[in-house]
Amino acid sequence: MEDKIRLQKRIAASGICSRRKAELLITANKVKVNNVICNKLGTLVSPLDCVEVDGTILTNEEQVVFLFNKPLGVLSSVKDDRGRKVVTDFFKEYPYRLFPVGRLDYNTSGAILITNDGELANLIMHPSSHLEKTYVAIVNECFNQEMALKMEKGILLSDGMTAPCKVKIIRSGLESKVEISIHEGRNRQVRRMFEYFGLAVKSLTRTSIGFIKLNDLKRGAYRKLTNSEIEMLKNLCLINKKKNVIPTYKEKNFG
Ligand code: URA
To answer: 1-10, 51-60, 228-237: lowest mean pLDDT where?
Structure first.
């Protein structure tokens, strides 16, 4: 009995769609349980029940989350038409339908979560979760305190103002080393934040996602998150959502 969960949660957890979309599919007669159409929201299903969504049978995989240290030159994707290496190539021993949670650029290394839990991925990626990600950037010229303060307050990029963030100069000089923590996830955001000051990022590494730190995890290596880390991550996102801190660019523009 404890193993039973609501049908819409079971569908969302498979990663094929959000819980809201799952509810729509259920009420639109697109979902079968044990080969019989089930259009009742909240129907409880167990791992032994066969759930079919729009012709696709869901598998009953164990739900896992890995912290992966993505090397440079690897795509945050599950496949690439041009034959480049993708993050899931490193997980071939696992019979799960894994995918990356969000993305890191091809030429950015570091922490990325890999999972088969679609609901958790949606929660983490949702802008209202305000999950802080920390990066270490090496930039080509001097990055000074004045720039750091301006960056912290928010700067105007082509797609709007950046939200307040934390910036720490580790080394300033001909080549500066800067730690930056942001909770937005716009395309090439950190690189563009330095470009604003006319600086080019020579190397970029994500060192943490929320409280999950890379520490000494080697490039190309991964570790499974513990159940308590996963629970804490979920709670952190839910608490931030409730607090509804400063609206992000996405929230302001797309509701
Ligand atoms: N910001 C970037 O510029 N690149 C990344 O990969 C992540 C954040």
So the answer is: 1-10
